[in-house]
Amino acid sequence: ARIRAEQVDLTTDSPVELIFDLDKQTYDLSMRGNIVRSEEDPTSQPGCYVGVQFANTFSDSQKALEEYLNKNLN
Questions:
Q1: Of 27, 26, 29, 34, which is closest to residue 55 (Cα–Cα)?
Q2: Interval 31-71: pLDDT, tens
Q3: Beta bridge mates, 30
Q4: Buried b (16+ CB within 10 A) or exposed e, 22-36
Q5: What distance lies between CA 5 and its chain's CA centroid?
Q6: Rounded to whole angstroms, how far apart are CA atoms 73 and 41?
Q7: What pTM did the predictor assign?
Q8: DSSP letters along 1-61, please?
Q9: CA 53, CA 33: separation in Å to the nearest integer?
């Protein structure tokens, strides 16, 4: 996943935990992974973009996130 972060000192191979607050009907989802790349924000905004590789892509959280995205983006 490519994610924008306001913190600029994120380094490759750092572990991260992402919490997705989807909506009031769906509980918050937590997924862990590692930063696989980092790039500066090309605008003048402080922050950067990071690429996160999730550690357990077959977790219940991943399945719930996939269902939520399929339902709300299609």
A1: 34
A2: 899 999 988 888 877 888 899 998 877 778 888 888 888 88
A3: 19
A4: eeeeeeebebebebe
A5: 10
A6: 25
A7: 0.69
A8: -EEEES-S---TT-EEEEEE---SSS--EEEEEEEEEEEE-SSSSS-EEEEEEES-TTSHH
A9: 5
- Please tell me the distance from the alpha carbon of residue 46 to that of residue 17, in angstroms, as a whole number: 21
Measured between alpha carbons, how far is 39 from 12 in angstroms, rounded to an integer?
10
Identify the band that residue 29 occupies on the pLDDT scale cut at 50, 70 and 90: confident
Closest Cα partner for 63 from 26, 17, 15?
26
Dist CA 44 CA 61 (whole Å): 34
Burial, 50: exposed, middle or buried (Cβ in 10 Å; 0-12, 13-18, 19+)?
buried
